[in-house]
Recover the amino acids of this structure.
């Protein structure tokens, strides 16, 4: 059998709300000559915080259908969304280790003409950059080192936990995103409660609590003088970027914190023309961070 390729599984949030993240991912993969497929048969993962808690078998069947789509095209799944990553990786692990459950799910899938054999691989895009492209190759490819840029990091809950299933990094002491930021020439800075949740998952049930959680983290980031925040998750991007004004509404004189999804910073360091990246679509202007590292560039906001 031919070696497997990769299919990009964008999920629901990025194409509909954060297209600039998709652009940065595609530019990054193109730069490193990573060929991927786009499969029109993919559907919602589904969200790990919704259906899975109401009907676990139904959620597994939906996830397994996506895994079966990839299997039918002889590809593994590459996703930039931490929620999709947890759902699909979790389903792949569970169905590969529980034959009885896999048979039950395949009975459901059989009604729509699918079967899943249990050997699919799922990786997060940033995990792929770290493990498959490699830190050395990324550092060597940097044309415009981001020296002088002090960056706070937010890994996100669904990229690290449950660690016994996702196996990306130590959930209590993660380092791989720090290493990737270092490779760009930027300086990661630590801050209080660095591994706390952004609060996005509580927004439906308690909007005020959700915004308070985000606001607390942003305040701690401001206190250490970070020039920007780097995230690995589109839901966290929404929480910290689109909702930052609301999260910091009780701090009217705060300095905004520019927020980047890691491949956006990577693209800047690789020398990707800034007009391709859609940075002007960020809710919080990123000009102050850009001025630290690319002062000759001007950001035209659409």
């Amino acid at each position: 059998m031919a070696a497997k390729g990769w299919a990009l599984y964008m999920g629901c949030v990025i194409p509909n709300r954060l297209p600039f993240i998709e652009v940065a991912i595609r530019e990054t993969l193109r730069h490193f000559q990573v060929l991927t497929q786009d499969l029109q048969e993919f559907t919602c993962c589904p969200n790990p915080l919704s259906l899975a808690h109401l009907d676990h078998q139904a959620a597994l069947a939906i996830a397994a259908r996506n895994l079966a789509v990839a299997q039918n095209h002889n590809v593994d799944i590459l996703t930039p969304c931490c929620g999709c990553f947890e759902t699909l990786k979790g389903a792949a692990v569970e169905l590969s280790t529980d034959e009885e459950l896999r048979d039950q799910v395949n009975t459901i899938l059989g009604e729509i003409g699918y079967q899943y054999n249990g050997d699919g691989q799922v990786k997060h895009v940033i995990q792929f950059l770290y493990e498959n492209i490699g830190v050395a190759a990324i550092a060597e490819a940097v044309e415009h080192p981001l020296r002088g840029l002090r960056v706070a990091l937010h890994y996100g809950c669904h990229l690290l936990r449950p660690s016994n299933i996702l196996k990306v990094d130590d959930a209590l002491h993660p380092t791989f995103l720090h290493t990737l930021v270092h490779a760009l020439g930027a300086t990661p800075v630590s801050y209080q409660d660095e591994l706390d949740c952004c609060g996005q998952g509580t927004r439906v049930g308690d909007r005020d609590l959700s915004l308070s959680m985000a606001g607390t983290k942003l305040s701690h980031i401001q206190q250490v003088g970070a020039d920007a925040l780097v995230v690995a998750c589109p839901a966290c991007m929404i929480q910290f970027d689109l909702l930052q004004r609301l999260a910091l509404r009780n701090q009217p004189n705060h300095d905004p914190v520019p927020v980047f999804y890691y491949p956006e910073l990577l693209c800047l360091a690789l020398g990707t023309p800034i007009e391709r990246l859609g940075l002007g679509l960020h809710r919080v202007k990123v000009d102050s961070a850009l001025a630290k590292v690319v002062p000759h560039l001007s950001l035209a906001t659409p």
Q: What stands out?
A: The mean pLDDT is 93.
